Amino acid sequence: MAVRFGIDAWVKQHFRPLQGLKVGAIVNPTSVDARLRHLVDLLHEADGVTLGALFGPEHGIRGEAQYMVAVGDVAVDRRTGVPVHSLYGSTFESLSPKQEWLEGLDALVFDIQDVGARYYTYIYTMALAMKAAAKARLKFFVLDRPNPIGLDVVQGNLVGKRFRSFVGLYELPTRHGMTAGEIARLLNERERFGCDLEVVPCTGLRRSMSWVDTGRDFIPPSPNMPTPATALVYPGMCLGEGTNVSEGRGTCRPFEQFGAPWLDGHEVATALNALSLPGVRFRACSFTPTFDKFQGASCQGAFLHVTDRRAFDPFVTGIAVFQTCHRLGGDHFAWRADAYEFVDDIPAFDLLCGTGRVRRGIEAGWPLGKIVGSFPAELTPFLGLRQEHLLY
C-alpha cells in the first residue's frame, strides 16, 4: 500500500480544516497529491476555501530557476489569477514573507518536498514563513511528506553559530533524518517562534522506508535533483559548490559525478577506492557540462555508485572526495571565493560544512579520520531533542 502524504489526507477530507478561511500556499512543483494534482489547483477548486496568495521558494513556484538565482515576483498565477510572491530574492530580507503580503489571510499552508540535507533551503523558507505567520497571528499548516533519503539515519555535524546562512540557518545536522513537519515542530519549540502550528502527517510511513518503499512518484524538487539517488549523495556532494570542482551540474547526473579538466579520472577513482569508504565505489568518468562550471569543457573525475545505502555516509564521502581533489589537483584546485547564500565574509565551503575545521584540515593534510572524528559526539545532544518531535 502506498504511503499517503499530508495533502492526501486533506483531499480525502475535502479540505475541511480550511473551510471558511482565506489561505496562502507555499508551493513548488512537488506540491501534488497521489493523483499528481497540484495543491494550488485543488485549493482553488475547493468549496468554502479562498486561495488568497501563493509563495514560491528557491527555484520558484514552477521550479524553473537554477540554484542561487533570485526569483522575481510574478503579478498573478496564470491558471488561477492568484497573486504570487517570491521568497527567494537578492537579499536576506527577501527570504521572508512581507507582512503586507499576509494581510487578509487566515492561514499559510506549506507543502514542499524536502530532500533530507540541511543545505536544502526549503526548510528555512518554511521556518521564516512560520516566524512571519506568528507575527501576523496566522495559523500555519505543514502538509508532511517523506524524507527521500530516510528517517532512521542522522549523520554529519551541527552548524556553528558563526557559520549560519541560508544553507544552514539553524543548528541542524548535515543529514537530519526528519520530515519537514518534524523539523517544523522542533524549530517552533527550540527557536520559540510562537507559531500556531499544525502538521498534517503522512499515514503508512515508517522510519526505515526508502523512497521506493513509499510507492509514490518522485517529483524533482529542484532542477538538479532529478531522482532519489541524487538526493542520497547530495549531503556530501553539495560541498562541491564550495570549490572549483564541478559537482556535475550541467549533466544528466548532477551530484552523482564530479570532475574538472585538470583531474585524471583514473587517478581520482583509484585514490578514493583505496579509502574503502562504506557503501560506495567510485568509477572513473568523463563529462562535458552544458552549463555552470566548465561549460563546454571536457572534465575527468569519478562517478559514485552507492552499493549499500544503509552503510553509506554521504557527508564523510563528500569530504573525502574534495580532500582527494585538493591533493591531486594541486595549484589548480581552489575554494570558492565569491559571496554565497547572502554571506560574503566566510568561504562557501565552510558555510556548507557549518565549520571551518574541515577546510583547514584538508589544507593541513589531516587524515580523513581526524577531520570527521568529532562528528558523532556533536550529534548526541541533537538526537535527544530530535526524539521529542518525531511523528513516525
Straight-line N-to-C gap: 17 Å
Determine the CATH topology of the largest domain: Rossmann fold
Number of strands: 11
Largest sheet: 6 strands, parallel
**Measured on Cα atoms, how large is the radius of gyration?**
21 Å
Quick one: overall form?
A: globular
CATH 2nd-level architecture of the largest domain: 3-Layer(aba) Sandwich
CATH class category name of the largest domain:
Alpha Beta
- N to C succession of SSEs: HEHEEHEHEEEHEHHEHEEHHHHH
CATH superfamily of the largest domain, called what? Uncharacterised protein PF07075, DUF1343
How large is the share of residues in beta strands? Answer: 5-15%
Q: Given the helix and strand composition, which structural class is it?
A: alpha/beta
Kindly give the count of domains: 2
Helix content: 25-40%
Mean pLDDT: 95
Unreliable spans: none
